[in-house]
Amino acid sequence: MPAGDGYDYAVPEGMELSPGDIVTVPLGPRQVTGVVWTDASDPNVPDAKLKAIIERYDVPPLAPQLLAFVDWAARYYMVRRGALLRMVLRGEQGLSDVRGKTGFRKAPLPDDVRLTAKRMAVLEAAGEAPLTAKDLAERAGVTEAVVRGLANAGALERTVFDPDPPFDAPQYGLPGRALSPEQSAGAGELRELIAEGAGTALIDGVTGSGKTEVYLEAVAEALRADPTAQVLVMLPEIALTLPFLARLEDRFGVPPAHWHSDVSSAQRRRVWKRVLDGSCRLVVGARSALFLPWQNLKLIIVDEEHDPAYKQQDGILYHARDMAVAMGARQRFPVVLASATPSLETVLNCEDGRYRRVELPSRFGPAVLPEIRVLDMRGEGSESGRWLAPKAVGAINETLAKKQQVLLYLNRRGYAPVTLCRRCGERMTAPDSDTWLVEHKYTNRLVCHQTGFSMPKPDKCPHCDAEGTLAPCGPGVERVAEEAQERWPDARVEIFSSDTVDRPGSAKDLLKRMTAGEIDILVATQAAAKGHNFPALTLVVAVDADLGLSGGDLRAAERTYQVLSQVSGRAGRAADKGRVLLQSYQPQHPVAAALSSGLRDDFLNAELLSREEIGMPPFGRLAGIILSAQEEPKLMEDARALAQAVPHADGIEVWGPAPAPFYRLRGVYRQRFLVRGTKRSNLQAFISDWLGAVKPKNAVRRVVDIDPYNF
Ligand code: ADP
C-alpha cells in the first residue's frame, strides 16, 4: 500500500477480524481508530515487526460496498482513502459508548442544595431520560464538573443507560396527501424506478409544484419494498429547516433522523450508530450524510440538485450530488434528483437519455407562477443612497396597502461592499489578504467575508490619515433595509442574512414571524431564498439582479438564473398571484429574458450550446490544481516548474498558471492551473503523471480539485 494509505498490523490471539471491522490501533505514540481493509498481509514486512491491534469495537463492520465506494471515490478525487474514511468515521467518538454509560437524570431536589445560575441551568436541562454528563453539560452550557457536583449533592440521579436509543421505524404505510393527477403520474414513474432497482431520475418541477410530495412516495415505496432498506433524503444545509422535518414527520408518523452541521454531538453519535447497525432507516441530511456508515442504502433523494452547496469547498473537494449518482450506479440503487432549475449537467444527462425526466409543469392547487418583469435601471438616475427604482417603490406601496408582504432580495451581507476614502481613494482591504472589507453597520465593524477577519471601523483613513473620509460604496442588505425603513416608517422591516440569524433559533424565530405576518418587508440574502413558504408574500424585488453575472465564472449565468428563479418562487405561493421585479442594468441579458418570458428551456439550450462550443462541462471535463505557499518566490518557482513539465496527451489542455481569485488570503499566496479534457479523457491519470514528475518545492501545497466550481 502507498505510504499513509494504510498500515499492516498483527492480529492478537483470539481476536476475530474481518474487512470493515472498526478497531483501535497504535500509530506512533497515539492510539487511533481505523478500519480493517483486508486480511492479506504484506509478505515484505516480517510479522515480528508489526504492532498489534489493540481492540475491536463491538459494532457491525462497515459494509463491503461502502469500502468499495471509498476506494473508488478516493481514486476519483485523488485523495487518500484514509481521508475519505475519516469522513465515514466522523461519528466515531460514540464507539466507546457501545456498552452503556453513566447517565444523569432529574431527582427530587434536596433542601440543602446551594443553587447557582449554572446549577439552575443544569436542573432545567435535565429530564426523566438520562443524559451523559457531557451531553447534559453541553445542553446547559456549563462544564461537566457542574453536573457532577449536582449529582454529588443529590440533586441529580445517576443511572446506567444506553445513550443512543433506536429511532422509531418510519411508517411507510400511512396514506400520503391526495396527489394531483400530475403528481400521481410522477410518483408512479418513481415507483417504477424503485421496482427496476437502479437508475437516476430528475423531478423537473416548477417551484411550488409539490416535488417533495412526489419523492416522498418514492421514499415510502423503497422502505416498503425491502424491510432492511435505508433511505437518504439530501438537502442543501440551508434548506434543512424545521418545517421540512415536520413535513417528513407528518408523512411517516415519526421524527426523522437528521444529520447536518448544527446537530449536537449526541445526536450525531446516535444517528451514526443506528445507521451502522441498520436500524435507522430514514435520514434527512446535508451533503456529509452521504458518508454515513450505510449498511443497505437503497435510495437517495437529492433535493435542489443544482445547488452549489453540494460542492464541498474545503477539505475533500467532493460534489455530493455527483457522488450520490455514482454511488447509486455502483451499488445498484436508484437516485432521484429534484429541482425547479436543474443544473446543465443534469439537463444534458436527461437529454442524452441517461436520466429519466419526471415533469411537474404547474404549481399545486390554485397557486400560479408569479409574473416576472425586468426593470431597466439604465437612465433611472439613481439618487445617492437610494437603491429602489420608482416603479419598485410604487409596487411596494401597492403591496403594503393590501397588507401583503414584500421580499427585497440582495445577495450581499452587511451595509456596503466597499469602503473607500473619499480623499485619497484608498479601498479598505484586509491586512494580509487581497479581499475588500465590508462595512457592517450594526456592529460598526469592517469584515472580510472570505476569512472572517474583522476590525472596528476606523475614524481615520489608514492611508492618508484624513478624518471622516471613509465612505461606504454600494448597497448591502443593511443599507437597503435602512432605505426601506426611511421610505416606509410604519412598516416592520427585518433583515435575514447569515449575520442576523447566526444564533440557533434566530432564523426559526424570524421565519415564524414572517409566516405569521408580523413582518412587512423582509430584506434578505440567499439564506431566505430556499424552501420557505410565506403565504402573504406577493412581491419580490431583486435589488441588483445583475450580481453574479460577471466575474468570468463558467457557471455565472446559470447560477444567477437559478438563484433568481428560486427567489421569484417565494412570491405568490398561496391563492394571490405574485409579482417579481428584477432591477437590472442588463435587461437584454438572456438570463433576464428567460426569467421574464418563462422560457427556461430556451435559456438552458442556449447555455448548453455555448458550453459545447468551448468544450466546457457538461461537455468536457475540468480539474483545477491550486498551489499555495506563504512565500511568493517558492510558489512561483513551483508553478514554473510544473508549467514546463506539462505532459502531452490527446484531448487534454492545461491553462495557467494564473493567480487564483483572492490571490493572497490570510498571508497565503495562491496560483492555479486549469486542466480541460474531453468527456472521455482520464484527467486523473494525466494529473497524477504530471504532478508526480515534479517534486513539490518545500512548503508549497498542491491541491487537486476535480470538477471544480468557481472557475
Ligand atoms: P416544491 O418543492 O415543488 O417547490 P412543495 O413540495 O414544497 O413544492 O409544495 C408546495 C406547496 O404545495 C406546499 O405548501 C405543499 O404542502 C403543497 N402541496 C403540494 N402537493 C400537495 C398535495 N398533494 N396535497 C396538499 N398540499 C400539497
Give structural notes.
The protein has 5 domains: 21-89, GIY-YIG endonuclease (3-Layer(aba) Sandwich), CATH 3.40.1440.60; 101-161; 181-360, P-loop containing nucleotide triphosphate hydrolases (Rossmann fold, 3-Layer(aba) Sandwich), CATH 3.40.50.300; 371-417 and 474-609, P-loop containing nucleotide triphosphate hydrolases (Rossmann fold, 3-Layer(aba) Sandwich); 620-706, Ribosomal protein S10 (Alpha-Beta Plaits, 2-Layer Sandwich). Helices cover 30% and strands 22% of the residues. It has 19 helices and 27 strands. It is globular and about 85 Å long. Bound molecules: adenosine-5'-diphosphate. Adenosine-5'-diphosphate binds at residues 177-180, 183, 205, 207-213, 364, 533.
Please outline what is shown here.
By secondary structure, the chain is of the alpha/beta class. Helices cover 30% and strands 22% of the residues. The site of adenosine-5'-diphosphate has 15 residues, from α7.
Principal-axes geometry comes out as globular
List how many beta strands DSSP finds.
Answer: 27
Helix content: 25-40%
Identify every distinct bound molecule in the structure, by name, code or SMILES: adenosine-5'-diphosphate
Count helical runs: 19
CATH architecture of the largest domain: 3-Layer(aba) Sandwich
Q: Determine the N-to-C terminus distance.
A: 34 Å
Major β-sheet strand ordering: 8-9-7-10-11-6-12
* Uncertain ranges: none
Average pLDDT over all residues: 90
The total tally of domains equals: 5
- What is the C-level CATH assignment of the largest domain? Alpha Beta
| Main β-sheet description | 7 strands, parallel
What fold name goes in the CATH topology slot of the largest domain?
Rossmann fold
- CATH-defined superfamily of the largest domain: P-loop containing nucleotide triphosphate hydrolases
C-alpha Rg, in Å?
28 Å
Strand content: 15-25%
Helix/strand-derived class? Answer: alpha/beta
